[in-house]
Amino acid sequence: MALHITDECISCDVCEPECPNGAISQGDSTYVINPDLCTECAGHYETSQCVEVCPVDCIVPDPDHEETPEQLRAKYERISSENR
């Protein structure tokens, strides 16, 4: 499933550059994750890099965008082919 940044975000700027898909951007008051681009780093890393670096643990699974590992991998493949 795609990830979501909660209101606990302190806008520390560490997650955005870690996202290999460019899914994270600055929102009005916190960073936000575009679920159409979030693959939880499938195809790039074993773990979600934004979750690894977040100092306040505010990046959680998004229940509104549930996806299987296979779906995340397919999304990665689609995104990769579009960026060629």
UniProtKB/TrEMBL annotation:
The answer to whether the entry has keyword Transport is yes
Required co-factor? [4Fe-4S] cluster
Q: What is this protein called?
A: YfhL family 4Fe-4S dicluster ferredoxin
Q: Does the keyword Iron apply?
A: yes
Could you tell me which residue ranges the 4Fe-4S ferredoxin-type domain spans?
1-29, 31-64
Q: Which GO terms describe its molecular function?
A: 4 iron, 4 sulfur cluster binding; metal ion binding
Q: InterPro entries in the record, alphabetically?
A: 4Fe4S_Fe-S-bd, 4Fe4S_Fe_S_CS, PSI_iron-sulfur_center, YfhL-like
Identify the species of origin: Thiospirillum jenense
Per UniProt, which keywords does this protein have? Answer: 4Fe-4S, Electron transport, Iron, Iron-sulfur, Metal-binding, Transport
Q: Which PANTHER family match?
A: PHOTOSYSTEM I IRON-SULFUR CENTER, PHOTOSYSTEM I IRON-SULFUR CENTER-RELATED
Record's GO cellular component terms: cytoplasm
